[in-house]
Every structure is written in C-alpha cells, then in structure tokens.
Design brief:
Number of strands: 0
Number of helices: 6
Number of domains: 1
CATH class: Mainly Alpha
Distance between the termini: 26 Å
Largest sheet: none
Shape: globular
Length: 182
C-alpha cells in the first residue's frame, strides 16, 4: 500500500476485516481530535478545566509525540523526530504539555498532522512487511516485542482516553459538543 494510493478510512467498516477495523477505529479517533481542536485560537487551545492543567494544545503536542514514539521508535527502532530529539525528558517528563502554551495553533496542528502522516506511512510499510503480526523492533522491559496489532490497539486506546478529555475541554471553550457532523 503506497501513500499515494492509500485509502484512509474515516471509521471502522460495519463488517470489515481486522486490519480495516483497526485502522478505521484509529482514524475515527484522530478525526475526533482534529475536530475538537480545530478552529481555535491560541487562547482556546490554552483553556484548562477544573483542577487539571491539560489543554487542547498540550493534547495535540502529546498525541504527536506518542504517534512518533509508537511507530518510529517502538515499531522501527528509529531515533526520535524533531523536536522530540532535543528534549530533556528527564528534566521535564511532561515537556509536551508544558511547552504547548508557547506554540501557535498552526504550529500545534502542523506538528500533530505531520506526526500522523509519518505514522500512516510507517504503518503501511509494516503491513507490507508482515501485516498485523509484524513484531516491533523495540522490546518491552521483559524482552517481549509487541506486534503491530498491539501497537495499533495501544494507539486507539491512547486516543480514546484523550478524546473524552477533548470533549470536556472544548465544550468549556465554546459549547461545541458531540461528534463531527461530516
């Protein structure tokens, strides 16, 4: 599947195969995040809710680093992409959340979209090189290497957790609720 001819599913098919179901579920979650974070200015992306310091801007940056870490670092064993390669994660393990306030909406959306694009390409390569059973280059602390199937499930779970956060924060910004009507 090359990136020029790849069809990106907006949601899982009603009765599709395992691969299309996983990829569709991930794309649906990505679509929710794009919608909940879209059309906001810097102030809207910096809004917090209750005692939490979480913002939609921080969420975009966090999901960008998780995309790159999961599919570049874990799946392929590659070095982190910029800007992650220069971050002192020991000094600030939540750097992406804290630093997002200094980024413009365009920078945050671009960073996230570029990470998603790289992830789509890497997943397509992994599918061509072993499918869902392809093992990651990086192993867990106990030595087991997760399959692409497991990494996709973990990414779907990561997005699903944060889509709920995005729902609440976005509603507090301007009342936007529900799912993308498109």
């Amino acid at each position: 599947m090359d990136s020029d001819s790849e069809v990106i599913l907006r949601e899982p098919p009603a009765a599709g195969n395992e691969l299309d179901t996983l990829l569709g579920a991930l794309e649906r979650q990505r679509g929710y995040v794009a919608w909940k974070c879209g059309n906001l200015d810097s102030a809207g992306l910096r809004v917090t809710l209750g005692p939490s310091a979480m913002t939609l801007g921080g969420l975009l940056k966090h999901l960008a680093v998780v995309e790159d870490h999961t599919f570049s670092v874990k799946l392929y064993g590659r070095d982190p992409w910029p800007p992650w390669d220069t971050v002192d994660w020991d000094a600030d393990p939540d750097w992406e959340w804290h630093s997002a306030a200094g980024d413009s909406p365009g920078q945050l959306l671009s960073l996230w979209r570029e990470a998603v694009g790289r992830s789509r390409t890497l997943v397509a390569e992994a599918i061509a090189d072993g499918g869902l059973d392809r093992l990651a280059s990086g192993a867990w602390p106990d030595g087991r290497a997760p399959s692409l199937r497991r990494l996709l499930m973990d990414m779907i779970e990561e997005y699903a957790r944060h889509v709920g956060h995005a729902d609440l924060i976005r509603e507090s910004v301007d009342g936007l609720v529900g799912e993308d009507p498109e």
